[in-house]
Amino acid sequence: MKYPVALKKIIGSEQYKVVVPDLPGCECSALSIDEALFEIEKSIASHFSILAEYGEAIPRALTIEQHQESFTQVIWCLVHVDITPYLGKSHKINVTLPELLIKQIDDRVSKSEAYKTRSGFIASACLKELG
């Protein structure tokens, strides 16, 4: 899932502050934009680990457009976060799909680095539809 993050240069400082609007309290500071993005990815992972530990749902990301009124004069970035590890234990299920659809899924999985397995592709499609 891609989460919008808002970066802002701290006036009178060499630092940038980065905030994840969809995850209240998830923010950090860093000396460069690259470092800020690296640090916020770690903060998001920690945030999600705590949510998973308490059985809380992972919040859905809103769009940048939905956040723009609340955050002005910022640099917007998207941070990709694999939320799969925070969704709980995996369970095996039987799914019946048409042969052609299975071939299309397998073709997409083999050509894309975003999906490691057929199950991962199907899970991603389900999350997108449910979101």
Residue windows where pLDDT falls under 50 for at least 5 positions? none
CATH topology label of the largest domain: Double Stranded RNA Binding Domain
| Average pLDDT figure | 92
Distance between the termini: 10 Å
Tell me the series of helices and strands, N- to C-terminal.
EEEHHEHH
- Which descriptor suits the 3D outline? elongated
Query: Which class of secondary structure composition applies to the elements?
Result: alpha+beta
Overall tally of structural domains = 2
Helix content, binned percent: 25-40%
CATH architecture annotation name of the largest domain = 2-Layer Sandwich
**At the first level of CATH, what is the class of the largest domain?**
Alpha Beta
Number-wise, the strands total 4
Please give the largest β-sheet. Answer: 4 strands, antiparallel
Strand order of the largest sheet: 3-2-1-4
Kindly provide the radius of gyration, computed on alpha-carbon positions and rounded to a whole number of angstroms: 18 Å
Note the total helix count. Answer: 4
Q: What percent of residues are in strands?
A: 15-25%
Can you tell me about this structure?
The chain has 131 residues and is α+β, with helices and mostly antiparallel strands. It has two domains: 1-87, Double Stranded RNA Binding Domain, CATH 3.30.160.250; 90-131. The chain has helices spanning 33-53, 64-67, 99-111, 118-130; strands at residues 2-9, 16-19, 27-30, 75-80. Strands 3-2-1-4 form a four-stranded antiparallel β-sheet, covered by helices on one side. The chain is elongated. It starts with a strand and ends with a helix.
